[in-house]
Amino acid sequence: MSSEETVADLHVHTTASDGRLSLAAVPAAATAAGLEAVAVTDHDRIHEGLDAPVVDCEGVTVVRGVELRVAADDLRLDLLGYAVDPTPALDDELARIQRDRVQRARAIVDRVEDRLGVTLDIEPREGVGRPHVARAIEASDAPYGYQDAFDRLIGDGGPCYVAREVPDVATGVELLADACALVSLAHPLRYDDPAAALAVAASHDLDAVERYYPYGGDVDLGPVDRFVERHDLLVTGGSDAHGREVGAAGLPEAAYERVAARLPSPEAQG
What we know:
Strand content: 15-25%
Order of helices and strands: EHEEEEHHHHEHEHEEHE
Distance between the termini: 32 Å
């Protein structure tokens, strides 16, 4: 096995939020990709189908996780919590966020329908996100594909965009730290100001930074590596999978072993 061969994809979305992969299909997808472990990190939602913080499903280690959007002044950042053992406070905040997600999706749909004169086949529910709306736009009579919907209608600052109400970073970190074995900053190089995002991670004492990610093209990971070394952090990694395949990016064996050492032992999934 190559020292850089991916063995763990710790950033996977399912149909519980805006992914296309059902939880039941996760182990087979992981096995097909040659993975030992995956983390289910749905947006602002803990998958109800997982029995424990870390489980063994058909020979694959599945980590119960969550991806939480937070606000840090003008920045919107994503935090990844791993091996979630939910607290009442976290449950309450995620329930509030889901209510806001549903209201926001309805507002976006209303704006799109009014602007384009179409009817979208979508009923907002818990876990709903803009990808659901984009798919409904693509399937409607509107002359927009999935990416066009984001680029011209519902993307940040677009004519049909509606902002979400997210917790501030201090609240988000506290909620996740109390409930998770490990908290990581997601995809630091995707933000408009990566240095500022990393500074937030340092000031709030996160455990890790997501180093391995399918950024595409030639991306200089030097700033992330230097930051991790300077602050003695773990690294996480994953594909941010929203489709039915996993493993496009993730942790090599040595890095995953360091993360796994911080997680509870897997329990058999009932």
